[in-house]
Amino acid sequence: MKLVYFASVREAIGVSSEQRDVPEDMHTVSDLVAWLAGQSEEHASALTQQSRLRFALDQNMVAVDAILGNAQELAIFPPVTGG
Amino acid sequence: MKLVRISCAPIQPERELAALAGLGGGALSSFTGIVRDDGGVTAIELEHYSGMTEACLYGLIEAATARWSLLGAAITHRVGIVSVGAPVVVVGVASLHRAEALEATAFLIDRLKTDAPFWKREHYADGTAKWVEAKASDDARSNRWA
User: Fold this and answer.
1) Based on the structure, what is the number of domains in chain B?
2) For residue B38, pLDDT beyond 90
3) Measured between CB atoms, which of A56, A61, A78 is closest to B119?
4) Burial track A56-67 (b if 16+ CB lie within 10 A, e otherwise)
5) Cβ atoms of A55 and A71 closer than 8 Å
6) Closest CA to B70 of B45, B100, B47, B30
7) A56 touches chain B (CB under 8 A)
8) What is the pTM of this model?
9) B117 Cβ contact partners less than 8 Å away, ≥ 6 residues apart
C-alpha cells in the first residue's frame, strides 16, 4: 500500500511517501496506523496520538475507524490549515 | 462556470474574478485571504495534497451550486512561499442577485478552511518556522452550514 504523509507528519517520519506490505489482519485505518507506529522511532513519534491525526483513503477524507477495503493509498496528516 | 486553480505564482484577485464578471448576473461577491503580520511572521509556506485538493475544491463548488442558484464560482489558492500582505486565496461567486452570491462565498471559504488539504507553516524574521494549528473557531464556522 502507498502511504502518503503531509506537514508535521511528513517531517517527523522523514519521507513524503513510502510503499509498505501491510499485514492481512489490518481492517481499519486505526489498525494500520497503530501497526505503522511500531515500524520505527520516527513513525512512533508521528503516529502514536491518533486523535491528533486526519486520514484520507484514495484521496477521500475518512474517519479513523474507516474500513481499508481495497484502497491503494492512505494519507496521514494533521488537521488542515488552508485559506 | 466552475473554476479551480492552484498557483505557485503570485495571484491577482481581479484577474481571478474577471471570468465571473461577464456571466450576465447582477452580483459578483468575493473573498480574498491575505497573509497577516502575526507577531513577526514574514511569510507563510503552504503545502497541499495534489489531486485531492482540486477534487475537494470542485466538490465544494458543486455543493454550493446545488444549494444556491449561482451563475458561476471560482477558487484560486496559492501554494509555496507567500509573503506578508500577499493574497493566499481568492473565492468568487456570480449570481443574479446578491443574497446567493454573498452566502455562497461565505460557505466556500468556511468549508475550504476545514475540508481542503492544505497545511500552512509560518516563517519568522529570526529564521524559525512553525506549523499553524487548526482552530476550533474554524470548525464552528464550517459546521453552521451543515
Assistant:
1) 1
2) no
3) A78
4) bbebeebeeebe
5) no
6) B100
7) yes
8) 0.96
9) A6, A56, A75, A77, A80, A82, B48, B49, B52, B53, B56
Burial of residue B101, with CB atoms counted within 10 A of its CB: 0-12 exposed, 13-18 middle, 19 or more buried: buried
Range of the domain at B88: 2-143
Give the residue extent of every domain in chain A.
Answer: 2-77
Q: Are B19 and B90 in contact (CB under 8 A)?
A: no
What are B's interface residues with A at a Cβ cutoff of 8 A?
A: 33, 46-49, 51-52, 55, 77, 88-89, 109, 112-121, 131-134
Nearest to A83 among B51, B113, B121 (CB): B113
Q: Which residues of B36-48 are buried (b: 16+ CB within 10 A; e: fewer)?
A: eeeeebbbbebbb
How far is the C-alpha of B25 from the C-alpha of A50, rounded, in Å? 47
Q: How close B38 gets to chain A, by Cα (Å)?
A: 15
The one-letter amino acid at B49: Y
B41-88 pLDDT per residue, tens: 999 999 999 999 999 999 999 999 999 999 999 999 999 999 999 999
- Give the CATH superfamily of A2-77: Beta-grasp domain (3.10.20.30)
